[in-house]
TrEMBL record:
Residues in Peptidase M14 domain copies: 43-327
InterPro entries linked to this entry: At5g42320_M14_CPD, Peptidase_M14
Entry-linked Gene3D superfamilies: Zn peptidases
Tree of life domain: Eukaryota
Catalytic residues (UniProt): 304 (proton donor/acceptor)
Organism: Gossypium arboreum (Tree cotton)
Source organism phylogeny: Eukaryota, Viridiplantae, Streptophyta, Embryophyta, Tracheophyta
Name of the protein in question: Peptidase M14 domain-containing protein
PROSITE patterns registered for this protein in UniProt: PEPTIDASE_M14
Cofactors required: Zn(2+)
Pfam families, per the entry: Peptidase_M14
Family: Belongs to the peptidase M14 family.
Length: 351
């Protein structure tokens, strides 16, 4: 393998959690405020525009969807997070026998494709745009006994910075990586730590975004958690902060589910396993590790839905997001279908 390709292969894995060895590439990109490929506004909404479109969709389907905005912060920094809840029967939405699923998108600001997938999934839940090869009756049966909460854009403040032209920004509105601000193994820094990429904040849950997400998770008590990113194609389970997976049957079931999704939707090309092992570096203070170890979510995952292995490390929009209609549609169809398979297989795996 040529040395230049090997270098880039390592760099492009950074969508899930910044790869510190080569994060100077991103630091330089943030400093120069330059990215080679601009946002394709024919494919992508602005952050605020996407949230408004989601709210309009919810209002068209009050029998299935509800939306709320949760706020937190101080006088100096505030954050709003929009949360959409799906249930076929609201009278039974609090039924503890139902499978509860919590999905978060847009945690890293530059990963626009993540939040676009949230909109696509919500369109399917509203029965406006069905997943490939799924008929309405099958969709209804799959979702009859689930309650789903979707956070379409966890990091709206950071996304505003990206929309303003700083396309390599992944952190929130005051420079904190929200996927380093959780309490499990928080603050540990590898030798190649770069604060321009993965600054964890002043303390666990120092950021209003992570405070809100923790409250949602604790109150909802999900059976399945998925944190959706881009930068590569991967299906990851705990742990991110060490090169191992949990012991026992729950870990085995998580792995079996990911292996099946890899066959069905990745043609066996997705990286699969613990984040700390499969990605090739350790990430400390991540949401998925907290969900598994502290909230005790039985199945906690991170999905990486896209990465361009030919893009320059400084070309952040192209590196993390499809830039043409054909690829964009393929990613939307492929991963939307994978989530509905997850909704279907989840109850079976948890039995």
């Amino acid at each position: 393998m040529a040395a230049s390709f090997h270098l880039f292969f390592i760099i492009f894995l950074s969508g899930f959690a910044a790869f510190p060895i080569f994060s100077f590439v991103y630091a330089n990109a943030n400093t120069t405020q330059h990215s080679w490929t601009p946002i394709n506004h024919h494919l992508y909404h602005s952050g605020e525009g996407l949230i408004e479109k989601i709210k309009s969709l919810v209002h068209r389907h009050p029998d299935k969807l509800t939306v709320e905005t949760i706020q937190a912060g101080t006088k100096d920094y505030k954050a709003d997070i929009t949360v959409v809840t799906y249930s076929q029967n609201w009278e039974q939405s609090g039924d503890k026998s139902k499978l509860r699923i919590l999905l978060s998108f847009g945690q890293h600001a530059r990963e626009l494709i993540s939040s676009e997938l949230a909109l696509r999934i919500l369109s399917a839940l509203g029965e406006e745009q069905f997943p490939p090869e799924m008929d309405p009756a099958s969709l209804h049966d799959t979702l009859e006994n689930v309650v789903i909460k979707i956070v379409p854009m966890e990091n709206l403040n950071g996304r505003k910075i990206v929309d303003a032209g700083e396309l390599c920004e992944r952190r929130n509105g005051r420079g904190v990586d929200l996927n380093r601000n959780w309490a499990v193994n928080w603050g540990k820094k590898e030798k190649d730590y770069d604060p321009a990429e993965e600054y964890p904040g002043t303390a666990p849950f120092s950021e209003p975004e992570t405070q809100i997400m923790r409250e949602i998770a604790v109150s909802f008590n999900p059976h399945i958690w998925v944190n959706v990113h881009s930068g590569t194609n991967g299906l990851f389970m705990p742990y991110d902060h060490k090169k191992s997976t949990p012991d026992g049957l729950p870990s085995q079931r998580m792995r079996e589910l990911l292996d099946e999704l890899n066959v069905l939707y990745c043609s066996k090309r997705c990286l699969v396993g613990s984040g700390g092992t499969a990605v090739g570096y350790l990430a400390h203070g991540t949401a998925t590790d907290y969900m598994y170890d502290v909230v005790r979510v039985p199945m906690a995952f991170t999905f990486e839905i896209y990465g361009d292995d030919k893009a320059s490390g400084a070309d952040c929009f192209k590196m993390f997001n499809p830039i043409d209609q054909t690829t964009f549609k393929r990613v939307m169809d492929q991963w939307c279908a994978s989530f509905f398979t997850l909704f279907k297989l989840g109850p079976v795996c948890l039995m």
